[in-house]
Amino acid sequence: MATPAPSALVELLKPITWFAPMWAFACGVVSSGQPTHGQWPVIMAGVVLAGPLVCATSQAVNDWYDRHVDAINEPNRPIPSGRMPGRWGLYVAAAWTGLSLLVAAALGPWILGAAIFGLVLAWLYSAPPMRLKSNGWWGNSAVAICYEGLPWFTGAAIMAATVPDHRVLIVAALYSIGAHGIMTLNDFKSVEGDTLTGIRSLPVQLGIPGAARFACLVMAVPQAAVIAFLFAWSRGWHAAIVAMLLLGQIALMRRLLAAPCEKAAWYNGTGTTLYVLGMLVAAFALRPLVGVP
């Protein structure tokens, strides 16, 4: 039986996608308000769980069940190109699922629960009969939760060894909602294949201009809510910094809206960078608040 080359395996697991959940996990660690002294082995294990394990699992699952769509949109990917032969894509997805659960179990019950939730969503997102990605409303919500909210929760929970402070949960949830818009931007590159294969992404459902406007709105409104909460919690300087980062995104959105398909990748490298910087600022704002009535 043919076996894939290591380079094909790495490409299947898509290391470039690991950044978002690892960053959100780090924001959770910061926002927990707990000292990191002596916790670095646990923190690093959590980072590995968020990125190279759970996120990588989702990428393998998605590529396996998307192999027919990818044959149209991106035929050079490992599975449609034949560099990941036979059912190896499915085997890798199953193996990485098991490995993720083993690591999560070693980190405690809250982390195991979060990992199970994320892995279930990863399979439901791509695999029939649910295949959440077949509808952009459900699919993008699942990815946004797994990329931002869930790893933020995990990072805070792994430090506190319990459910994080309610303010941490509020901010994590808001940035998770905003990530729905970021996920919509990723759909612009595959409109043709999605249309041909019946995937009802938001660009397919709303049209490209409508989906672009909706993505911008969904990214901006939760950040405005974060700013309001930070002011209410007397974190004025942090709120002002997040507000400036949001204004920068809004300025960049004007170029995005002028040519969504051509500028979506550009915005992910510019506007989304400002978005994730705001996440870290908000995490530092929460740090001294945790435990304060």
From TrEMBL:
Recite the UniProt keywords alphabetically. Cell membrane, Chlorophyll biosynthesis, Membrane, Transmembrane, Transmembrane helix
Q: What InterPro entries does its record include? A: Chl_synth, Prenyltransferase_related, UbiA_prenyltransferase, UbiA_sf
Q: Which residues cross the membrane?
A: 12-30, 42-61, 93-125, 137-161, 167-185, 206-231, 237-253, 265-286
Instruction: Classify the main location.
Output: membrane
Instruction: Give the way it sits in the membrane.
Output: Multi-pass membrane protein
Q: Tell me where in or outside the cell this protein is found.
A: Membrane
Looking up Pfam families in the UniProt record yields:
UbiA (PF01040)
Q: Which NCBIfam families match?
A: chlor_syn_BchG, PRK07566.1
The record, for PANTHER family, names: CHLOROPHYLL SYNTHASE, CHLOROPHYLL SYNTHASE, CHLOROPLASTIC
The protein, known as? 1,4-dihydroxy-2-naphthoate octaprenyltransferase
Q: Which gene encodes it?
A: menA
